Amino acid sequence: MPVETGRCRGFFPSFAYVPEMGRCIKFVYGGCGGNHNRFQSLDQCERACADRSEGPSPARDRRCLLPIETGNCLAYFPHYAFDRKLKKCVRFIYGGCGGNANKFSSMRECRSVCE
């Protein structure tokens, strides 16, 4: 996935994985829009994207084990996350910043990664 700053003008230091470089880089996220190639810390990015070889990556699947986090901001963005207790993807409201990698823009995407 490409690095996308989003369509808003906020200033949220973030990290994204660049496959061509084989590593995570720092960039500034604007606060809305963009894609899911965005992490709060270098460590989160590296854990989620460390092994991008053929087939599902154990590192990528780990994000499904993270708790559901609404984030630190108060925006209203419907998202989907894997609920470990229910063992299925569920809808939740993402606040727009913070949170973790257990966050998907569609139920389909969540299910394809986590179920």
From TrEMBL:
On whether Coiled coil is a keyword of this UniProt record, the answer is no
InterPro entries documented for this protein: Kunitz_BPTI (IPR002223), Kunitz_BPTI_sf (IPR036880), Prtase_inh_Kunz-CS (IPR020901), TFPI/VKTCI-like (IPR050098)
What CDD domains does the annotation carry? Kunitz-type
Domain BPTI/Kunitz inhibitor as annotated: residue spans: 1-49, 64-114
Q: Which UniProt keywords apply?
A: Disulfide bond
Q: Which Pfam families match?
A: Kunitz_BPTI
Statement: the UniProt record of this protein carries the keyword Disulfide bond = yes
**Top-level taxon of the source organism:** Eukaryota
- GO molecular function terms noted in the UniProt entry: serine-type endopeptidase inhibitor activity
Q: Which SUPFAM superfamilies match?
A: BPTI-like (SSF57362)
Q: This protein is called what?
A: Kunitz/Bovine pancreatic trypsin inhibitor domain protein
What is the protein's species of origin?
Schistocephalus solidus
